[in-house]
Design brief:
Elements (H helix, E strand, L loop, with lengths): L23 H6 L2 H16 L3 H4 L4 H9 L5 H9 L2 H14 L7 H8 L4 H6 L3
């Protein structure tokens, strides 16, 4: 007979609902700095693997090449925010800060003091 939780028990909050990873105990045990170190050492190498080849073909770098850095900064930030690489980073930052998905990306970068991943990855080229 399997143990079943009571019917009125609250469902645990999860980061990835399909995997069932619980969030709250993780946030209580680790500091924000520790979470950033884990991201930088475990997730960032996976995201930037082979970026020397494919980074210049992303939408952000294509728009920078076409218009240069003289174009409207809001357009560049919009392109950067729509990049799948940065989208993963932004989701992590919002989760770490406890923000909703509708929070501004500039707030996430500014409050954490972190730069977009495209800038970090461009250092590898």
């Amino acid at each position: 007979m399997a143990h079943e939780p009571p019917k009125n028990a609250p469902k645990p909050t999860t980061l990835f609902s399909s995997q069932g990873v619980t969030v709250r105990p993780l946030l209580k045990c680790l500091t924000v700095v520790s979470l950033f170190r884990l991201f930088d050492s475990l997730i960032l190498p996976i995201l930037t693997y082979g970026c020397q080849i494919w980074l210049l073909e992303t939408n952000f770098f294509k728009s920078v090449r076409q218009s240069g850095l003289k174009s409207d900064p809001r357009k560049l930030i919009t392109k950067l925010s729509s990049d799948p690489l940065e989208n993963t980073h932004i989701k992590f930052l919002k989760w770490t800060l406890g923000l909703t998905s509708k929070a501004t990306n500039l707030v996430c970068w500014g409050d954490t003091g972190r730069f977009p991943l495209a800038i970090k990855a461009s250092n590898q080229i």
